[in-house]
Each structure stands twice: as C-alpha cells, then as structure tokens.
Amino acid sequence: MDKVLSQTPNGRVFICPNCNKIHVEFHNFLFSFDDEEYRYFQRCFARMDGCYYEAVNSDIVYTRKIIVPIGHKNASMMLNRYELHELKSLLKGSGASKSPSVFLSVKEIGLEVGSN
Distance between CA 101 and CA 94 in Å, rounded? Predict the structure, then answer.
C-alpha cells in the first residue's frame, strides 16, 4: 500500500513501497524522486512567483503562461497561477522548506533520457 504524504483534487504525493521513491502525481505529470531530489523539487516550486511569470509571458500564444523546464529539451510543464498554487500546496503538505539559490538540473529531477 502506498503511503500518501499529501493530496489535492488534482494530485498526490506518495511513497511507493516497491521502489521506495517519492512520487508526485499532478494532472498528467508524474515525477519520481529519492528524498534529496524531492526536497529540492519542493524548494524550487515553493519560491516560484507565478504572477511574475504570467506577466513576463503574457504575449505568448499558450493558455498557460508559467513554463517550467522538466529536463528534456523538447518538453516543459505548463501551468496557470491556480495550478501552480495547487502544486505548491500539494508539495507544502509534505514539508516544503527554504529555497536554495540554484535551479533544478536534469540530473537532480531524475528526468535524464533513459532514466527510470
């Protein structure tokens, strides 16, 4: 049985007893982390200013204006301010902490091509 750490209407954070990874399921995204990677992911979203990115990207054609690179040159996560708020709440529910001064790398979020 999965250990659910946090849940919102559109996502949940849980620990899988089989692989012992922390999984973040949000809308149609799934991220899998070890403890350190997950804490880093939490901190990065905790400090993200959705209003700023919506203003900066106000002229782009996409409906969602908050664009988050996810570690592949041809893929990004796109959010609106309400989705970002929900994702922050989901991650905070399991212990978000102070933010670092660097951004997530491909290796840190575990999304390198060919990784599990």
Answer: 21
d(C-alpha 22, C-alpha 1), whole Å: 13
How far is Cα 2 from Cα 107, in angstroms, rounded to an integer? 25
Q: Supply 67's token pair.
A: 């664009």
pLDDT in tens, 44-76: 999 999 999 999 999 999 999 999 998 888 999
Total Cβ atoms within 10 A of residue 88: 18
Residue at token pair 């001064």 = 101
Q: Cα separation of 33 and 28, whole Å? A: 17
Please tell me the distance from the alpha carbon of residue 23 to that of residue 14, in angstroms, as a whole number: 5
Please state, in angstroms and rounded to a whole number, the distance separating the CA atoms of residues 81 and 66: 7
Residue 9 structure tokens: 């209407």
Q: How far apart are CA 46 and CA 96, in angstroms?
A: 7
What pLDDT, on the 0 to 100 scale, is given for residue 102? 36
What is the value of pTM for the model shown?
A: 0.76
Separation CA 107–CA 116 (nearest Å): 12
